[in-house]
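Why do we care about 3D structure at all? Because function follows from shape, and shape follows, mostly, from sequence. That is the central idea of this module. The next example makes it concrete: a single protein chain, its amino acid sequence, and then its structure expressed as tokens.
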Amino acid sequence: MQECDLVIESVAEDLVVKRGVLDEIENALAADVPIATNTSSIPITVLQQGRRNPSRVIGMHWAMPCHVTRFLEIIRGEHTSETTERTTLELAVAAGKQPSLVKKDIAGFIANRLGYALYREAFALLEGGVADVETIDRVFRQTIGLFAPIAGPFRWMDLTGLAPYADAMGRLFPQLSNATEVPATMRTLVESGAKGAANGCGFYDYSLEQRQAWERRLLDQVWRHRAAESRGGRSCD
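And the structure:
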């Protein structure tokens, strides 16, 4: 058996692949060593099924660029032990993260459930002819992008007054998209071979220079956010 304190697997987001790798990890470790699975959507309880010691399996959802971002979701499965949770949280803090504990194991966890609700409505606006891609992106940057670095949705509602949101919810919620299929625009792009910035074809077209510029811009933004936190400008969330 190999000696270590915790193992993190980060293979393809494929249930069959992950289960096979977890089998191999179990064969190489002592029975009490925690195993963290890096997944963005697969419920941890599903990955605990068939494990010899499911209490030591826990989720860790990282975000790119992993060496800079403070984000890290720690997800408990139904069988995850308190010891496994504590060890994983300690490692996350030691790695410079601000870990967020997901207490209830649901597909997509917190970040992706928020994100995909946004993506679904963005497609509904696009395919409904309300606005084009550039306009939707611009409106997002100029509104949500304005407060997102310092406040989450609940604090933003606190800061700007609750009653108007309650009124708007009554009017808008029934009209928001509840689509359950992949949007036609996305299917067409993927089937055409588009991979976004990776191959220069997506909602926007990218030359090699443009792709590199956007990658630098993203990394610079994350570092600026880290610097602001270091100066005491972090959110109170």
